[in-house]
Design brief:
2 copies of one chain form a homodimer. Chain A is an alpha/beta fold. Chain A has 13 helices and 11 strands. At the A-B interface, helix 9, helix 10 and helix 11 of A face helix 9, helix 10 and helix 11 of B.
């Protein structure tokens, strides 16, 4: 199915120098989709080269006069910059000109703007952010990642529903398994909110696996892991820190002397195969779930390849009507 | 200073086959310390060999007729087994015959028994569990790791004090830095309990760094990282899962074909240097803090080397009067 993506070209650490080539690459590979590049026209147009002729109506450029800063306060971005590229991509989804919005900008601002412009789906109290992590078996979707702290059990149930629908839309799995992040497999463990959330998930009709622990994320025990935004953010950031440390230690171990450097040269194919397997760029594109429209957040430091992965993910979510799936599943849950 | 360790020889996945050799090795390396080996006499004595003559009064054996199972319910261990090896090591600290108790058994049971026998220090509401993790700069102490879910801000303050005193006792640092695990550096972020805990820590007289994020654990930003037991447990287990996945992927990358296998052979010195640097066995020995006595929990799967590391850690904590340090710091905090 043909979908149109509205791309905030100004967000992220590298701005249009990454987002524009990634968008053109995406158009080249997906002959059905279209994009609307949003941002400062003077900056974007010179980067297009012959693309305007190549892609015709599949490539549009929409000028937006303002830019949301990476560290800008949410209030200032939301109320002070009504013509920001971030705001315009949300507006384009709202008006139906695009099926998905994508930005590598400030996460808090993107969430606030998306929520303000698009509104939440019926029955969803709070939108959540879901990311994908590599696992021993493939990959797993984890939510929430920081949009929601101090959650109630009902919120965790909603995250479970949204996560399951995300997997069904992106992976075409009928009944994705959902795990509840806890600190022990026994039902007696964990805090009060999590205990009650487990009871709600058990009767939700979802394919609820039960409690999982932190190591189950990387074991790939379930398709979806549900937790509150505080815990999810800590788990993600801790993982980033550990991965960074291991990478640094490996590099240092291989650069100690000429013998280890020679070994590194010989080991390059193996090390490259290893790197490809855990390459976080492939998993770029966190979904803002629970909104009346598809919104995807790229990592700010994404390169062209990573940003294109996020575009592909956004297109797939839009193609499979993710918001409608969530709305339908929520309606079923309310009736039940 | 000479200290005596009471060692539960029956706990852990390997029981006396690991704990006894580790204890003898410890005695060989630390000429001042003594140990009391606790457990089934018939099982332990044959493992001693000539050690009884070698170490004289520094090595005692105390029979305990019962064993707490690794998965045994806390209530059954606490009330049903008054002559368990785990119970007897706590009793020996209580009576003053030993300065520290050590077990590789069931964590929940060890915490419950230690708390029942030894009681908490004045001003401490709940004991906590602290572990050590390797970092880019050395290592960091993280607490709590699962003893306490649903914490109040005051508990997090107490964890900060206990963690700082642990570092002062084990590392001989005067004013260890303390970070509060949160999901953003801005004070506005985080949940209500953490926000309020930050305010308490700020005026506590501790060397409070402020908020840290998950990746700061492995960056080694602060000497101590404070969080509630739910979050700490998730961070630790997630790290274990990720480390396991990376190890597996590395092994698989190097065993793909004869060329990568040859590379692995050449890379062995570098890979071994890397492994030594992140060897979790060196960090074995989690401290149960806030009790009127030193209690250290070894990982259940510890080998002889890892268990000896935990013994050395317990001896150092006892030698430096960790409980007295915590009590003194708590008294100062109450006055302030």
């Amino acid at each position: 199915m043909a979908v149109t993506l509205a791309i905030d070209c100004m967000g992220g650490d590298h701005g249009p120098s990454v987002t524009v080539p990634a968008a053109l690459d995406f158009l080249r590979r997906d002959a059905e989709c279209s994009v609307i590049l949003v941002g400062l026209e003077d900056v974007i147009r010179p980067l297009l080269g012959r693309a305007a002729e190549d892609f015709g109506a599949r490539l549009q450029l929409r000028h937006a006069s303002e830019i949301v800063g990476m560290d800008e306060a949410v209030g200032s971005a939301l109320r002070g910059k009504k013509d920001s590229s971030m705001r315009v991509v949300a507006d384009l989804v709202k008006s139906g000109e695009a099926e998905a919005a994508l930005s590598a900008g400030n996460t808090g601002a993107l969430m606030a703007i998306s929520r303000f412009v698009l509104k939440t789906l019926p029955g969803i109290d709070r939108p959540a952010i879901a990311t994908i992590l590599p696992t021993m078996k493939g990959h797993t979707y984890v939510l929430d990642l920081g949009a929601n702290v101090d959650c109630e059990p009902e919120h965790l149930l909603q995250f479970g529903i949204m996560g399951a629908m995300l997997v069904s839309a992106l992976e075409h799995k009928d009944r994705p398994s959902v795990g509840l992040l806890n600190i022990g497999e026994e039902a007696i463990k964990g805090n009060e909110v999590v205990k009650r959330a487990g009871e709600l998930l058990k009767v939700s009709g979802l394919n609820f696996f039960g409690n999982v622990e932190g190591d189950d994320i990387y074991k790939g025990t379930t398709d979806v892991v549900v937790c509150d935004g505080f815990v999810g953010n800590v788990a993600l950031k801790t993982s980033e820190g550990l991965a960074q440390m291991i990478t640094t230690f490996l590099r240092e171990a291989f650069s100690r002397n000429w013998l280890t450097k020679l070994a590194a040269l010989m080991a390059r194919p193996a090390l490259n195969a290893f790197k490809a397997r855990v390459d976080h760029r492939r998993y770029n594109g966190a979904s803002l779930l629970g909104l009346r429209g598809v919104v995807v957040k790229s990592h700010g430091s994404a390169d062209t390849f990573a940003f294109r992965c996020a575009l592909e993910r956004a297109a797939e979510a839009a193609r499979n009507n993710l918001p409608a799936r969530i709305a339908a599943r929520m309606a079923a849950a309310v009736v039940a």
